[in-house]
Design goal:
By secondary structure, the chain is α/β, with parallel strands linked by helices. The protein has 2 domains: 4-128, Response regulator (Rossmann fold, 3-Layer(aba) Sandwich), CATH 3.40.50.2300; 141-236, Winged helix-like DNA-binding domain superfamily/Winged helix DNA-binding domain (Arc Repressor Mutant, subunit A, Orthogonal Bundle), CATH 1.10.10.10. 42% of the residues lie in helices and 21% in strands. It is built from 8 helices and 12 strands. The strands form 3 sheets. A 5-stranded parallel β-sheet has the order 2-1-3-4-5, with helices on both faces. The protein has a 4-stranded antiparallel β-sheet with strand order 6-7-8-9, covered by helices on one side. The longest helix has 24 residues, at 106-129.
């Protein structure tokens, strides 16, 4: 089945251009320029990817992303007319997976879409591989003192309490935990968690590590789980 993409942008010409080029790549595309309708469509069609403009009538892109993150883990590629680092940080904080400033190259956008959907497929394959012969998931749990990662349920608990994690936060923490004791460079983490063709820089890793520390460390300013190795990267201590 064709992968489904929801395009949310109130510029009709851009909306039509995106839809045309995405359909040429074999994707099933729905479009809207209204924030409220975007939420309804996302819930109804359950897309594999959402391309979301920041500036929209009614609900803006940040608020839509914030609401969607409470309901689904669909990757979000956020668009903005301003090449502003503050917009990028806010977009990441509300749950966007990637970010592009207008005007952008259609070729670059299609490359990012392809990379993000590849990540979705890899995650689904990992879930399928975790199933036993009877079709029931095998228990796959990593425990580190007060921290427990249940990979079958995609659930993380700290001191026995379930903590909400954005999809990329979950992927990053799981990846670090699976390589406990190893020093991992930011570039290696970007390649393995975000994909080799992710167009971004190592600050993306730093931002997500900061968010993880705020959720799993008793004192985020003096981390005991995710250790910074100066000039090298990060090390997870079990």
């Amino acid at each position: 089945m064709a992968e489904k993409i929801l395009v949310v942008d109130d510029e009709i010409s851009l909306q039509e251009t995106l839809a045309y080029n995405l359909k040429k790549q074999g994707y099933e595309v729905q479009t809207t320029g209204d924030g409220t309708e975007a939420l309804e469509l996302a819930r109804e069609m359950e897309p594999d990817l959402i391309i979301l403009d920041v500036m929209l009538p009614g609900l803006d892109g940040f608020e839509i992303c914030r609401i969607l993150r409470r309901e689904m883990s669909t990757p979000v590629l956020m668009l903005t007319a301003r090449d502003d680092e503050i917009d990028r940080v806010v977009g990441l904080e509300v749950g966007a997976d990637d970010y592009m400033a207008k005007p952008f190259s259609m070729r670059e956008l299609l490359a990012r879409v392809k990379a993000m959907l590849r990540r979705v497929r890899l995650i689904r394959e990992e879930v399928n591989l975790a199933e036993g012969e009877d079709g029931k998931p095998k228990p796959e749990i990593m425990e580190f003192g007060n921290l427990k990662i249940d990979m079958t349920r995609r659930e993380i608990t700290v001191d026995g309490e379930v903590v909400a994690f954005k999809p990329k936060e979950y992927e990053l923490l799981t990846f670090l935990a699976q390589h406990q004791g190893q020093v991992l460079s930011r570039e290696f983490i970007l390649e393995r968690v975000w994909g080799w063709d992710f167009i971004g820089d190592s600050r993306t890793v730093d931002v997500h590590v900061r968010w993880l520390r705020e959720k799993i460390e008793p004192d985020p300013a003096n981390p005991q789980r995710i250790i910074t190795v100066r000039g090298a990267g990060y090390r997870f201590e079990g």
